[in-house]
């Protein structure tokens, strides 16, 4: 079955309904090696996934470099997104200053072996700088042909509205899944009203919504989830009770847990293009068929019973990880 397409915002290109997040290539969720990452990208391309997402800080350029190497070697035709705005620490900071954005874009383009990217996100908003000024900066990059469009990540509805009035926003990327549903409190609706694509990242709950139990106590020290409250005791045990019930429901339907979780996200609106990530082609195979799963009203009710809104124990970020994320409710 071919991968269906969805439109990346009003007047945007048609892209695969499921995109691909390249954060895992940087080793954020366990060991990663470049050769395996390149093999994974080959499987991603073969699956018809042509909307790829990376960022300048993923492995301090490692993810962009791997993507760029693959594109150079294969000439693959993809719609590419990358990000700017997080300044590595310690302590970590944020900059949406025009010269910084331009310099980082030039560095990203060099690593990606591209003359432009189709989508350039503000990874985190610099709160001291008016978002209208940032929109003007991104508008100039569009006029110069260095980017086709721009987007925002982890922002509030009010920020989206203000930015969009200056230079139309093509996409907004916030965390969204069956265990992180905050965007339902305004972001999803704002994007739909304005014709903006909504790009759920971590749609599989950072690996928890799968068929195999994770082992948080044995995560490597640099694993992003090591200090994440949802993966720590006593929250973890409570969360796994819900996950195992969801697994049982998926098994009853004859699908993998991750494919069902992804199908649920896709079902929430045609303007949604989730970007799951993985380090291996084997894991890709577990969820790539999500677009072929149909969900009835009864299915949706059953899922809601097993994983009701707010079921997750613990915050989705630690206090340190939360810095830079806009809170609005």
From TrEMBL:
InterPro entries: Aldo-Keto_reductase, NAD(P)_OxRdtase_dom_sf, NADP_OxRdtase_dom. The keyword Nucleotide-binding does not apply. Gene3D superfamilies: NADP-dependent oxidoreductase domain (3.20.20.100). GO terms for molecular function: oxidoreductase activity. Residues 17-306 form the NADP-dependent oxidoreductase domain. Keywords: Oxidoreductase. PANTHER family: AFLATOXIN B1 ALDEHYDE REDUCTASE, PYRIDOXAL REDUCTASE, CHLOROPLASTIC. This is Aldo/keto reductase. It comes from Celeribacter baekdonensis B30.
